[in-house]
Amino acid sequence: MLGKLLRHYASLLKKGDISNQQEVAERVFQETRQKISQPTISRYLKKRKVTRKKPTYHYDEQLKHTDKIIKFIEKIPSLSKSSVLALDECSFHLNEVPRYAYATKGQRANRRKPSKRGDNHTLILCVQNVKGRGVVKWELIPRGMKIHHATKSCQKEGLSTIKELLTSKNIEPEYLPPYTPELNPVELCFNFLRQNAEKQKPRTTDELEASIDKAIKLLEQEDLTK
């Protein structure tokens, strides 16, 4: 009886219908009047390779675009792997700090940080899925700076849209389905760059740019085909 209940609640944990192990213990007690400790539940889950981890969230709005998402995923293998570029933008703030720290068990990990979040900056990143030197181009745009590069390029070439400009350069744009940033390989790069920036704790634009440049050099050593 107990084993069957634990299997059931382990399944609910994985689905997110139960939030933590203490809730499992409480539900088991409600149904069986048998007390079970959190460490016991932890060992049970560990034996079945169920671990606690940070979830990857997906937008609810994706449900409205399921067909488009499936078609895009099915199309990915047919694309030429040697010539695929991924482009996106991401926000970075000054005054960021590491999200985790170490401390003795039972004690708080006390750290100091600025009371206000710093100015927002936008990082534009383009990568290619190759082994080594996969970063094609990156640019950090400080808050308030207006960018006219794409518009000027279109005007220079006598074209009316960015898509036409890309087509003239033999580049075929593929747009992600709505609300699916996780399908863009650049997202994983952003996670890596942000974690490194948080470790450096940049307080000025120059410090932020330097921390990103340092992380980019590490990223260029990685295999971006995986």
UniProtKB/TrEMBL annotation:
Signal peptide: none
A Pfam family matched in the record: DDE_3
All copies of domain Tc1-like transposase DDE, residue ranges: 160-208
GO terms for MF: nucleic acid binding
SUPFAM superfamilies referenced in this protein's UniProt entry, alphabetically: Winged helix' DNA-binding domain
PANTHER family in the record: TRANSPOSASE
Protein name: Tc1-like transposase DDE domain-containing protein
